[in-house]
Amino acid sequence: MQKLIEQTALALARSKSNVVLSGAGMSAESGIPTFRGNKGLWKEFNAQELATPQALRKNFSLVWQWYNERKKQIAEKSPNAGHLALSRLQEIIPLAIITQNIDNLHSRAGSSNVLEIHGNIFKARCMACGHVMDFSQTDNSTFLCPACTRGKLRPHVVLFGERLDERQLQKTFALLQSAQVFLVIGTSSMVYPAASFAEIAAEAGALIVEINPQPTAQADIVLRGKSGEILPQILQSLQDFKSLKN
Ligand code: OAD
Known about the structure:
alpha/beta, 10 helices, 9 strands
């Protein structure tokens, strides 16, 4: 494992464009449940009833209730050692983060250059004019948009069956094309389009590194373990490598 970590650190240090794709496993060590697997959220809750445009139309307040509950739980959690290591890595190497997570933990860890392709649970969006705003309240679901004063606000998260934001996708595809190292962290790679990103980056020439305790996608370097343990080791190795060079 140490050899693979050093190999990854060296590749990151040499690359001009490093890109991370993170999924729910990235936040597992913060105590936020993942979606799939034995204790996954979609084992306990019905996605069709809670996270689809149909659910939003049929049962607006239930959808809000579900996201409000999750928002409360997430607000109590903190970034873990993996989030913090990525944020420190950004001080040393060029690194962009594409995340499927809506928990805001990359930003709370101090990371910049984060594309939240599935939205952000601490934001709301107007269903009439599309205005997006910070929205931390968890007590009500009947707010009207302050920008247009007529539209209802919905959680600013992507629901099953919805398209991702076009501008975010364009930025994402530009990153996939430019990436020299592409780190796939804590995702089961089952939800599209994110599930295709590693392959697109690989076709464009990136070295693919996967960090996950379970086997998922194909990668050039597979670091089998928890991101909160492996990322700090990569950071350490990169720092050692940089200090040797100076
Ligand atoms: P999943 O729950 O499908 O997968 C989580 C992955 O994290 C699994 O492959 C685990 O093996 C891995 N994992 C668990 N603990 C880990 C740890 N400590 N370190 C690293 N990896 C770990 O979550 P996603 O792939 O993120 O979409 O799911 C993708 C999308 O499906 C989500 O964004 C959400 C969901 O429905 C929407 O809500 C639109």
